[in-house]
Design goal:
By secondary structure, the chain is an alpha+beta fold. The protein is built from three helices and six strands. A six-stranded antiparallel β-sheet has the order 1-2-4-5-6-3.
Length: 146
């Protein structure tokens, strides 16, 4: 199994168990190990009292892209820290894309940047996540060994 196949198999395994992402209509694409894209439509139920997408949903979308980017190595990886900067509001009917990129990965830790854009290509938010690899394999024995 090559690196990209392994990363996509890890993504399938995660997505099958990820009820939150599926319930929110988030779709995932793993482009290379360490990089992932998550897409989410903004629906009326996601709007806050200012009639814009609640920041928690933006964080969730970015966190999802981050999770799929850092879990492509067949090593269960969790968030150690994360922060987000909101740049512009997202509105009902927007289609948001979160693109996660690995910036550094060494030993059991990593740093990932995520950019959220709307369907017009405008930046909505910037997120940075720090990951910690547990050392436990994600895939059953024989399905992800290098």
């Amino acid at each position: 199994m090559n690196d990209l196949s392994r990363a996509r198999e890890c993504a399938r395994t995660m997505y099958d168990a990820d009820r939150a992402s599926r319930e929110l209509g988030i779709t995932i694409d793993v482009t290379t190990p360490g990089h992932a894209t998550a897409v989410m439509p903004v629906t009326g139920s996601m709007l806050n009292g200012h009639d814009v997408c609640h920041g928690g949903y933006l964080f969730t979308l970015a966190d999802t892209a981050f999770a799929f980017a850092c879990n492509g190595y067949n090593d269960v990886t969790v968030a150690a820290a994360a922060s987000i900067d909101f740049l512009r509001p997202a509105k009902d009917g927007d289609r948001l894309t979160a693109t996660a990129s690995e910036r550094h990965r060494q030993g059991r830790t990593g740093i990932y940047d995520v950019e959220i854009t709307n369907q017009r290509g405008e930046r909505v938010a910037l997120f940075r996540g720090k990951s910690f690899a547990t050392g436990e394999p994600m895939l059953p024995a024989g399905r992800g060994a290098p």
